[in-house]
Structure formats: C-alpha cells, structure tokens
Design a protein that fits this description.
The chain is an all-alpha fold and about 270 residues long. The protein contains 13 helices and no strands.
Amino acid sequence: MATGVFIVVTQLPKEALLSWGWRIPFLLSALLVLPGLYMRHRLDETPVFRAFKKQQAINHRQQREERPVVKVVREQWRSILLIIILRFAESVPFFLATVFAVSWATTQLGIASLTILYIVMFTCLLAYPMHVLFGIMSDRRGCRQVYIFGALFVAAMAFPFFWLLESRSLILMTMGYVLLINIGHNSLNAVQPSFFAGLFHPPVRYSGSSIGAQLGAVVAGGFTPFIAKALSAVYDNSWTLVAGYVVLTALASAFAAKIAPETVLPHSP
C-alpha cells in the first residue's frame, strides 16, 4: 500500500509534490490506525496468559505489582538484547531493498525509479501469502528453525541480489527481490510475533517483545540506508561492502536464533 501511494504521489508535478503532495502518504497512514485498533481489541488472549490471570486473581496479592516494563528490563534484559540482534537479519535486507537499492539502482545503473518501485510493490503484494505459508511452516517445524533458515537465506542472497540488479533485466531483478524479500525477509517477519513473545515469561511478554522489537527496528533497520550509503562510498559506489554487511548481520541473527529458546516456560511473578 505504501509503495502504491508513493508511486501515485511521484506522478505529481514537482512543485505540487514539494508544496502539498508529500503530505498525502502521511495523512492516509492515519486511516490505518482505526482497523489496527479494531483488530487489537478483537484478539483473544493466549491460554497461557489467561491461566496466569486466573492464578493471579486467586492469589490476590495485596502488594502493588511491579510495572511490566521495569520488571522485564531488570529480569530479562538478555532476551531484549537477543531480539535486537535477531531483528538485523529481517530489517537490514528490507530497508536495503526498499530504500538504498531503489536510489542506488537509479543513480548507478540508470534504472527508472518507477521500475524498481513497481518491483517493490509486487513483492509487497506477494508478502501476504508468503507470511501465511511461513506461519504454517513454523507451526510444524517451530519458530526457531524457520528463523534460522530465513537468516541463513538472507546471508546467502546478499551478493546474488546485487548481481541480479546489475543485469538490468526486469525478470532477473524481480527474481532478486522475490528471493531476498519474499523468502528471506518474509520467513523472518512472519514468525517474529510468536518467536519474540515466547522469549519472555507470560506477565511481561507484551512489554518485553515490544521493547526489543522497537529498539531492534531503530538499531537494525533505521540506520541501514545510512550505513549502506557510507559503505558504498568507500569503493566508488560499489555494493561489495554493503553485501558483506548484510552477510555479517544475518549470520549474527542466525547465531542468536540458534541459542534462543523456542519458548520460555511460564512462571508466577
């Protein structure tokens, strides 16, 4: 949706785009808050959390409970750090392909920006069924195994992705995006909610997974375009160091997934 809106907005005259057109995507994004709130309030709590709340009501502790955010940072900070590392394999290739590669392919390879944006939009549409597929796979093989597979696949695709971009062939470039995003990124993103929540005890799962995921998004994803730009400038806009960065971060995530538990056993606070 975001890519589609961006494609439409970029068709405006330059003066209109700079004066008011750039505001359109931000205003439209506000509409997504309503369905998001609706879905959040319609979700059922997990059996583990319902059992915890029932036990908590039975115990009926008189003392004031410690805030979940404080509790999870104090007791399970290692899990938060683990999530930050886990997010590299998912966030780095996504921001690389949707931000850095769009600019790099346009300026260095002479590919029309609309061509890359249409490819990005196609991979975003394909992400819907791919998330379902990897969700089913995680139910059968476990989130950790799927995550390790996805991280290693991202590492394996780092160099081929740029080779396929350099071909300037629409089919080959699309193949590169599908492999990196729809198999590599989607396999990771699809299992993150379940995998990350399972790293924490039930009373603090929401707080712990949210803190780790958001910090990981900033550290792993937010800085990726800047890091990629800096690395490419080292060797006259070459992508070699950029691909190497993807490999190293993806392998770090694979190792983090390897040592992470599938699910932390519940306990009473």
